[in-house]
Amino acid sequence: MKLKKVICSFLGSCLIAGVLQAQVTIIKAGHLFDAATGKMLSQQLIAVRDGKIQQIGADIPYSPTDSIIDLSDAWVLPGLMDCHVHLTVAFPYRKVAIEHMYMTESTALRALRGAHNAQVLLMNGFTTIKEIGNDANYASADVIRAIKKGWIQGPTIIYAGKIISPYGGQTAASPEHEHVWDMEYLDANGADEIRKAVRKNIYYGANVIKVVTDSYAYHYSLEEMTAAVTEARQAGLKVTAHVMGGEAARNVINSGAAAIEHGVDLDDELLQLMKTKGTFLVGTDLAVSNNLAYSADSATARNYYRIDIDRLKRAYRIGTKMAFGSDIIIDIPGKNRAQTILEILQSWKDAGIPNAYVLQCMTRYAAELLGVEKERGLIAPALAADIIAVKTDPLKDINAIKAVSFVMKDGKIIRKD
Ligand SMILES: [Zn+2]
């Protein structure tokens, strides 16, 4: 805020009128990605005030006293979004052991890792994420609190709390260690237990509900999924489901859940059903380099990749709604969490998905899935000023977004190289 209104008298003396006005920032964008249309515009001005975009255009008025950010040699985009993030998880490279993590890492350590990764993601252009669970005893709820208090910088986080699942979570435990998974999952079997689990997550800060429906021979019925969706909806929340395909996926789609996570085994008929129902696919289609991090041998890593790319291609061809999600739980040596996430761009490239559509899946479509489309996802008047810039054209080479040179979050400059 600053004093701005100045009244000059005929004697030439100036009086400050005492009207407080918020500082206006003008971003000069050489190129501006319009996520609504998928087109790149030239020579645009963006006026930002009070953390929000006020006006955009090639010729909008501004005052010499406004703060100017010159990005006339850059490509400016809405902040990126990742709809499948595990902020607090980092297995050792090529040594996946989820149960070992439960036994050896405290919730405090997990929260500190989550805080670190949240900052890394924001610095690299991710201004909104969906934190999808596996965060010990609600560690990410405290990461969100720390961001809101201003202790650390981080993206807007849509938060799932503990993952709700049929008996056993996604864990391999002996009977002597029954409920070791309670650290990460809420066992919920039958509609009543599911409703209780949804309420528990909301109580501890969740604003989206994540269910794992099919990790074992038993999976959630349509009645159980409908209970989850109905209970969440009453609190204004969406449900998203880890499911691979088959009958379990059909139950998820028919329940009215917002999205399927992974969906590796979805056939064309189910992808078509998703299109009809408006169910999003968050494909989490890892690159070969990501698959190798899981201790997979080269042939296995390539085989997983081939299956993912095939489903990604079919979903695009059929027109199933998609939003970008990464599901990174192991970093590649020498790369930070954001860099490991962006390895996945290779999968979208190899599936032949147009770069403009990839960017839309990382912005406007992700915002729609996350329920923040009235606040974020586009560079448009009245939306939050979540704005990034890169030095080369991402429509020519999507890898351009691996080198973010400018980040603005809610109108505040986080990075300017
Ligand atoms: Zn995941």
UniProtKB/TrEMBL annotation:
Membrane-spanning segments: none
Q: Keyword Signal: yes or no?
A: yes
Q: Which residues form the Amidohydrolase-related domain?
A: 75-414
Signal peptide positions on this chain: 1-22
Give the Pfam families listed for this entry: Amidohydro_1 (PF01979)
Top-rank taxon: Bacteria
UniProt keywords, alphabetically: Signal
Gene3D superfamilies in the record? Metal-dependent hydrolases, Urease, subunit C, domain 1
Q: Please report the name of this protein according to its UniProt entry.
A: Amidohydrolase family protein
Q: Which organism is it from?
A: Chitinophaga nivalis
